[in-house]
Design goal:
The protein is an alpha/beta fold. It is globular, with a radius of gyration of 18 Å. The relative contact order is 0.14.
Length: 289
């Protein structure tokens, strides 16, 4: 099902433009260590906000600490209306491996690290990232870590709670515990496992934030996307973004880049209207081996 794109959606207390910015790529290779050119990274952040981006996705485990400090250096004091969404639930070891960080103390420390490095008194939205499997969403109880986040919200350190890398069952269980502002999962033209969940969240007014808009394509799937993009005189990334925007009105995008030119291309994709025949061809990509 496709929808006529609307340009904004609610995310916590903020009405945000549906194309945001993901800061992960501003860290060094493997999302570990500093970027080669910190000045260029800060310039991309300023260009994003100047272009109308008012939703930035980050985490203190990017780097670690790197992207949050770059965001603070580039944008603080933050403009009115800017929604900064961060994540907790993981940590990095000295080799850059991603490890679960689900204990009470780790979650509390993570919130305080994000506050300090972003220069904030309260975090707009904190996504709890489930880490039951390194391969993707896997079942497991989120009750204890969500209760910690709920306490931090009561203390005024967190305004809204979201979820990342989660199953539909975990989303349902979480919504019975606390209000959920957003769900952030891997979803794109070929990775369609959350189709039903997206529609359920749209009906409830909850944002869905997919990552990796071009991840996991087979060569044949990539060829189909490239052919559609060529017909429309657009890049494959722009078409993938446009398809996501037309897929459901609650989808908020956070494409990341360290290039101002690519940033502008990604934002421009919001204006790309896909004709019905292109949508039908793109919808069928998931079934191509």
């Amino acid at each position: 099902m496709t929808h006529t794109p609307r340009h904004t959606w609610q995310l916590g207390d903020h009405t945000v433009n549906r194309i945001g910015y993901g800061a992960m790529q501003l860290a060094g290779p493997g999302v570990f260590g500093p970027p080669k050119d910190p000045d260029a990274a800060r310039a991309v952040l300023r260009a994003a906000v100047a272009a109308g981006v008012n939703h930035i996705d980050t985490s203190d485990f990017y780097g670690p600490h790197v992207t949050n400090r770059l965001i603070r250096e580039a944008l603080h004091p933050y403009p009115a209306g800017l929604c900064i969404v961060t994540k907790i639930g993981a940590r990095r070891d000295a080799q850059g491996n991603w490890l679960p960080a689900f204990s009470r103390q780790e979650l509390v420390d993570a919130v305080h690290d994000n506050l300090r490095n972003l220069g904030l008194d309260t975090l707009d939205v904190v996504n709890l990232r489930a880490m039951f499997s390194v391969e993707g969403p896997a079942e497991g109880s989120l009750e204890e870590p969500l209760s910690v986040l709920a306490e931090l919200r009561e203390q005024g350190l967190v305004r809204h709670i979201g979820l990342s890398n989660v199953t539909a069952k975990q989303v349902g269980d979480a919504r019975r515990m606390v209000p959920i502002a957003c769900v952030q999962n891997h979803y794109n033209l070929v990775h369609r496992g959350d189709d039903a969940l997206i529609d359920e969240l749209a009906a409830a007014g909850i944002a869905y934030v997919p990552f990796f808009p071009l991840g996991g394509f087979s060569p044949l799937q990539s060829n189909t996307l490239t052919a559609v993009a060529a017909r429309l005189d657009a890049t494959p990334m722009a078409v993938a973004i446009a398809w996501l925007l037309q897929r459901a009105p609650n989808i908020l995008l956070i494409p990341g880049t360290s290039s101002i030119a690519h940033l502008r291309q990604n934002i421009a994709a919001a204006a790309l209207a896909l004709p019905a025949d292109a949508v039908a061809e793109l919808d069928a990509i998931a079934a191509i081996a």
